[in-house]
UniProtKB/TrEMBL annotation:
The protein's name: ABC transporter ATP-binding protein
CDD domains: ABC_Mj1267_LivG_branched
PANTHER family membership: AMINO ACID ABC TRANSPORTER ATP-BINDING PROTEIN (PTHR45772:SF7), CONSERVED COMPONENT OF ABC TRANSPORTER FOR NATURAL AMINO ACIDS-RELATED (PTHR45772)
Gene Ontology cellular-component annotations: plasma membrane
PROSITE patterns hit by this protein: ABC_TRANSPORTER_2 (PS50893)
Keywords recorded for this protein, A-Z: ATP-binding, Nucleotide-binding, Transport
UniProt GO molecular function: ATP binding; ATP hydrolysis activity; L-isoleucine transmembrane transporter activity; L-phenylalanine transmembrane transporter activity; L-valine transmembrane transporter activity
Residues annotated as domain ABC transporter: 4-245
Source species: Phreatobacter aquaticus
GO biological process terms, semicolon-separated: D-alanine transmembrane transport; L-alanine transport; L-isoleucine import across plasma membrane; L-valine import across plasma membrane
Pfam family, one: BCA_ABC_TP_C
Length: 262
């Protein structure tokens, strides 16, 4: 079953092609990582899927519905949650209140907020915090948390909309190695249990190769390799990418020849 279909996405900024012929699929409960050197087109591809950028060509299909070019809020309401490289939380609110606000917003109840908003959807918010191991800190202000715990709260906020697809932009950025592994293990466990597809970008290759089901490698906006961690690790084209300019050119040429032959 296909949850996310990305078909031939392309995006140019002036004379620069940031994404070209980008196509892939993602199944429910699967973790797909997008990696590549700086300027490879990872963020451009990611933001076209999430609605932050409108593609020049191509389609984004979520659970059978074409959502190409729809704004982020509409994409979110159709079942796409998101976390960011720098955690997005209300630091002056408590841990539970952050998740409550996500629930209130997703249900379009912000206009009816009253003095009893503190208790609105509280039990449900605690339930989402329990999923990420933060229920015992529900009353603490987010400003008092260690950064690794803030990232867990952000994950609970993203889950509060009951997403089909979770987009994670460098989820382990700024975290210690042990915290990185714990967050990715938690994400993988939740995704597989609740059949949530996860598309993420990440610079920590240990996290990528340990926790992704498949990896997509981009160079200069084009896919040069796609496969399981073992397949990507042993891929000659991927090795070439990190050998400098000559390697990049050779990898792109080889990939184009392979696609053309198919």
């Amino acid at each position: 079953m296909t949850l996310l279909l990305v078909d031939n996405l392309q995006k140019r900024f002036g004379g620069v092609t940031a994404a070209k012929n980008v196509s892939f699929q993602l199944a429910p409960g699967e973790l797909l990582a997008i990696i590549g050197p700086n300027g490879a087109g990872k963020s451009t591809t990611f933001n076209m899927v999430g609605g932050q950028l409108k593609p020049d060509l191509g389609r984004v299909v979520l659970d059978g519905e074409d959502v190409t070019g729809q704004p982020p809020r509409m994409v979110w309401r159709k079942g796409v949650g998101r976390t960011f490289q720098i955690a997005q939380t209300f630091v002056s609110m408590s841990v539970a209140e952050n998740v409550q606000m996500a629930l209130i917003s997703h249900r379009n109840e912000t206009r009816s907020l009253t003095a009893n908003a503190h208790s609105l959807h509280r039990d449900e918010a605690i339930g989402f915090l329990d999923r990420v191991g933060m229920a015992d800190m529900a009353e603490r202000p987010v400003s008092e948390l260690a950064y690794g715990d803030v990232k867990r709260v952000e994950l609970a906020i993203a889950l509060a909309s009951n997403p089909k697809l979770l987009l994670m932009d460098e989820p382990t950025a700024g975290m210690a190695p042990k915290e990185r592994a714990q967050l990715m293990e938690l994400t993988a466990s939740i995704a597989r249990k609740h059949k949530i597809g996860v598309l993420f970008t990440e610079h920590d290759m240990d996290a990528v190769f340990a926790h992704s089901d498949r990896i997509l490698v981009l160079v200069r906006g084009e896919i040069i390799a796609e496969g399981t961690p073992d397949e990507v690790r042993s891929n000659a084209q991927v090795k070439q990418v990190y050998l400098g300019e000559t390697g990049v050119q050779a990898a792109l040429k080889a990939r184009r020849a392979t696609v053309g032959a198919a």
